[in-house]
Amino acid sequence: MSAATRVLVLANRTADSAELMGVLVARHGRAPMAVTMLAPATWEVQDPHGGTESACRRLRAARRYLQAKGIEVSCVTGAADPMTAFEQEWRPDRYDEIIVCTLPTHLSKWLGIDLPRRVAHAAVGVSVTHVVATEASAVAVDGGMTTTP
What we know:
Helix content is 34%, strand content 22%. By secondary structure, the protein is α/β, with parallel strands linked by helices. Strand 2, helix 2 and strand 3 (72-78) form a beta-alpha-beta unit. Helix 3 (82-89) runs parallel beside helix 5. The relative contact order is 0.23.
């Protein structure tokens, strides 16, 4: 049996979205993988701790869901700037694939700074997949997974 593919997932508000969870479960169905979820701790009005609590809540929800599907998951919070968070976590010898999950174009600050392309440029030779989550599915309810109709 071959070693699990090591996948770095860069997501924050979309970390527990139905779209991202679906992509990860489907990817795991093709071959074993170990996922590291990286969420930049971006300031949010409802989080008095600089975004750390909100990011951790989403990461916990994603981890619970993915572990229930048999996927090995670790979670990390990073710098508020998503590119800085990526650069601090990224090591070519540590990851085989990268997934960047964003909100749709009309809502995404990350697409405004061209984050998926910038990550792909920084990680030359590594597969980078961009997943777009819907606004409705990117909202965690009671720290759990939300689904879209």
